[in-house]
Amino acid sequence: MTTDVTDAGGMGLDVDALGNTDPILSIAEEVFSAMIDGEPGLLNPWYGDRPDPVEPMHAWVDVHEAGSGRVLIEAERGTVVELTRALLAMGPDEEVTEADMVDGLGEVANVVGGNVKALVPETGVLTLPQVSSERPPTPAEDLLHELALDWRGRLVVLSLWRLP
């Protein structure tokens, strides 16, 4: 499910000023190419049916301001292992610990969240990232935007949520 990014107005994001582009996709592409892959083109929109996640992990940051919101990233544990390995420039035989995965996925959520926050006209406070196997409370009616991404053939979902 992809929700129209123009709905992100609930976070105070003026998407009309951005033309016909998806700023969240642009942010994700820039973050992955700069921090994880070292080159563009390895993160793309997901096409087709989404597989049911096996052992999902979630990382999020909240932006508190006039239009508070949450930036949430969800991926399978195996994807988080590979993402962390790439982010930390670990070799294929190096063990990726739980702490490494929390740091890696949390850092990606933090950088994506900071870039989303930069698009909002009112400056706000960005919380520290939280990482959990449990999805944080996210009522369906508070979904502002959801973007399914294909990173090296693996599903990564990035979403924006309105907070009360």
Give structural notes.
Helix content is 29%, strand content 26%. Helix 1 (23-37) runs antiparallel to helix 3 and helix 2 crosses helix 3. The chain has one domain: Chemotaxis protein chec, CATH 3.40.1550. It has three helices and seven strands. The two termini are 23 Å apart. It has 164 residues and is α+β, with helices and mostly antiparallel strands. Strands 1, 2, 3, 4, 5, 6 and 7 form a seven-stranded antiparallel β-sheet that branches. The longest helix is centred in the middle third of the chain and has 22 residues, at 98-119. It is globular and about 45 Å long. Strand 6 (143-151) and strand 7 form a beta hairpin. It has helices at 23-37, 77-87, 98-119; strands spanning 43-45, 56-64, 69-76, 125-126, 130-132, 143-151, 154-162. The model is unreliable at 1-9 and 14-19 (pLDDT under 50).
List the helices and strands and how they pair.
Elements (H helix, E strand, L loop, with lengths): L22 H15 L5 E3 L10 E9 L4 E8 H11 L10 H22 L5 E2 L3 E3 L10 E9 L2 E9 L2
Antiparallel strand pairs: 1-6, 2-3, 2-4, 2-5, 3-7, 6-7
Major beta sheet, specifics? 7 strands, antiparallel
CATH top level? Alpha Beta
The share of residues in extended strands comes to 25-35%
* Terminal CA distance: 23 Å
**The CATH superfamily title:** CheC-like
- Per CATH, the architecture is 3-Layer(aba) Sandwich
Summarize this entry quickly.
The protein has helices spanning 23-37, 77-87, 98-119; strands spanning 43-45, 56-64, 69-76, 125-126, 130-132, 143-151, 154-162. It is α+β, with helices and mostly antiparallel strands. Helix 1 packs antiparallel against helix 3 (98-119).
